[in-house]
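Sample log: TonB-dependent receptor plug domain-containing protein.
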Amino acid sequence: MNKIRYNFFVLMLNLFCAPILMAQEQALKGRAVDRATGARIADVSMYLPGDAAMAKSDQNGAFSIQVRNGTEKVPVRFSAVGYIVLDTLLAIDRTHLIQLERGLVDVEEVYVSTGYDKIPRERSTGSFSVIGSDRISEQIDFNIMDRLPAVASGIVLDRNSKGGSDQLLVRGMSTILGETAPLVVLDNFPYEGDLSSINPDDIENITILRDAAAASIWGARAGNGVIVITSKKGSLNQKLKANFSAQTSIEAKPDLFAIERISSSDMIDVESMLFEKGYYSSMIGSRSKPVLSPAVELFIRQASESDPAALAEIDAELDRLRTLDVRNDFLDYIYRPGLQQQSTVSLAQGSDRFIWNASASNASLRDNLGQKTQRNTFVTNSRIHIGKRLSIDAGINISFLASRSGRPGLGAISAYNSGLFPYAELADAQGNALAVYKDWRAPFLENDLHPELLDWRYYPLEDYKHSTSVQSSQNTLLSTGAEYSLPKWFRLSAKYQFQKQAGLSENLTDIQSYEARNIVNSYSKINTATGGIDHQVPKGGILDQSTNSRTAHSLRGQLNFNWETPIHKVYGLLGSEVRSVSANSGSNRLYGYNHSNLAYSLFDLTVPYTHYITGANVTMPSGLSLNQREDRFISTFFNGSYMFKDRYTATFSARRDASNLFGLHVNDKWNPFWSAGLGWTVSNERFFADHPIGHLKLRATYGKTGNLNPSMVALTTIRYAGPNPFTQTPYARFDNYANPELKWETVGMANIGLDFATKDNRISGTIEGYYKQGTNLYGLAPMDYTSGVDAFIIKNVAAISAKGMDVTLNTINTIGKVRWTTNLQFSLNRDKVTKYHAESDLASQFVGATNRISGREGSPVYAMYSYKWMGLDAQDGAPLGLLSGEASRDYRQFTGASATVDDLVYHGGIQPTLFGSLGNTLSWKQWSATFRMTYKFGYYFRRETIVYSSLFSTWNGHGDFNKRWQRPGDESATDIPALIYPVESGAENFYRYAEPFVERGDHIRLEYANLSYAFPNGAVSKLKDASVTFNVNNLGLLYKRNRAGVDPDFSSASNTGFSPSTIYSLTIKCAI
């Protein structure tokens, strides 16, 4: 009875006191929005110092927090990534609209896109680098990927390891023989098309997934990093808005004289010496009539001429040739200022249930050589909300890309053996095209030709008009998806994408082109009965056609989970996807082609034809080929995170992949790719509330991703190659040998990161360090010699490791009314080979081509070695090496089988180990100026030098010829050997790969500078957001460390081009 009375008393007391207690707590409510745009801001942190209470805004920016303080106003601190911290006093009896001012960090960086989901940065533990549309638009490159190295942290443009072809690397090398390019994802799915077909104006942001925690959800294709491209979309409750932009760019002519080349006078002196020593004797008497330079032809005439007047005429002509430089003709007749124009129109609108946007663009590029590229794009995206739970997305992305060849540039015009003498003439004084004798001697073509043969001379200034190459492609992306919010905390989604790329390439050389005339003439024969000419190859043009198509289907199902309480936040996604890619290609050749009526001729391709000049028997190529390939992938994946009190975060992801590339044996094995991470948001701790640093977060992750090379398969395969030219029956050859253990490469990476920002966001950034290991990498392994085939096979036998760091620092350096912001990107990366079965100690394997894999354990994947150098012999200027501790000329010992890598000088890697960029923006009223420089340090390149054998045979002479040893004492001032005839191949192979020609690649480059003016809204009619920007790209080197004074990115032995020309552009933007 007493117990019942006690319980009744307690119950009545609670009922009586509850209203009083509830009255002591009041809710502080409101909404957080962007001050400039009015957009609602999610995940805004609120902190009440007096009550030590914390809360966050929801996805619509709304917030509510219980306040026990009975005063009329309470102090509140609002903070969000990308915004300046706001401290204010708020009344507790009203709903507030909190306007936050955007800081240096773009608001888009509050969320990061993985291609599977868009997650708040605070919930992530991985390494992301986000580039917003404003930063993307600071540059004017036609290809959007060319804009990344200057603005993205951890990315470098590799110009050396692939022999001159450019390749983006994310955090350096992750493979040896596999594909090095990062995976590119466009709007949630891997992009298989030409990246040049993407319009940069359509892109909202680009996210670089750099570590395993960020990229592992992409599994077997994420080992080289992932670049996620997100297109612009509309937004809810947005009035119809039209945006317009137009850009015109002019590219200056290149500086051809920056390329060091032998002078015409020196070249003629060399040819004179060679003529006197009989170098050309065999060529003069050869039946094949190989082309000789004009100077040599004059020497031949001079040797048989006795008339003083004729000899004087020859001497005068030689003197005239000495004054010529073919680069002047290239600048006068070949190179022109380039022109690029682009315009984009976009529309966007949104209600509370339906949003859409559409854009159309046209871009045309005419480069210095007149090559034309045209791009047209149309993009539209829409989303409709049906009820409160269901939404449906649809997207269309169509692009057309076409190009047409232009004039031949320096290096494309050549005579015999792919060279061109420096005194060649392309036009006479009146600008009329002159002949350059390409394959056959001038006297033969001028005097000994049968009159019925076609003109056999080559006119470079006219020939390109009759030899054209046209490529065109259409890329279509169709995507759709549905998302359904299930009861409680689940969201179910399905996405499908169809991609179709179709390409056509046509190379037409009409009957007026040198190539067609050369082929028709070469296989003509004299009719013994009539004395006339029979053209065995049909008289007419030659058309080479090739087609290619690629079709990809991607289907993904995904279940998202999101459960939040004031203390706990749990997020996860589980899904599966299938993807198939079919590729087809084919080619053919038509002879006797007439473009005007599409007529062509057939003739017997099964019999050999005798060459008119050389007498060799040759079977004419048919140009026929057919190729088909199908790749299929299936994957399951999971990604999840748990956050406790908005301070402590744990993440985990896992993925399993299977493919038809490896067969059932490997696919049945569990070889997961996974990652795990921990994060601690120190700034959300109560003890950190009054610290001047407003945001501080520690992150640590580890995980494994993969890499593959689609060209390698696990089973023995054969490739049919069409009819055999001798038997005219089908035949095939082995394409891959049985390799049952072949599987994905594995890349493991550990990453530690620190994110920081001051309360006023004046200083913010990230500091990250990482270590990665590539295991099961593709490498050369000995093949069973009893197989009777190749000595080596590619297997998963190699390994590499790399370590480095990425630093991003943003500052606001406001000076009075001038807003000055700085962005510094700093990256450090060092890789080394830790396992390579086919390692060789032979010295000659480590010098030569700079894109040769070193394969030496402990050295970088691509390393620079050179022969030890002991200077020049004081007697004759011959190069000296080191043998048994003494200077020697025993070149076979230096370069032969007895020389090992231990005899070489190791310099370092050919990839930059320290690189990054520095950008500054100054803003005053409506004016702003931006400039950005990039830098690369800690690498080496091998520069060009004179190679006498190439000088003799192809006229390819470097300017170092002027610096050669010529008399005793020169050895103290030069490292260029004397010209000694005949050339000793051992000496040449030694000195061209010796120490003096390896240079430091360290340099700083001014990439671009912009000046823009933003008109006040309404200042120009009814236009909004109107602006005009003047941009200058490719401003050149500010600093270079090498002794030769050359541009290391464009003047190495593997990349013999010249620095890119400066581009000037004007951009106009406005909105209605």
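Observation: Residues 107-235 form a domain with the Ferric Hydroxamate Uptake Protein; Chain A, domain 1 fold (CATH 2.170.130.10).
Observation: The two ends are 80 Å apart (CA to CA).
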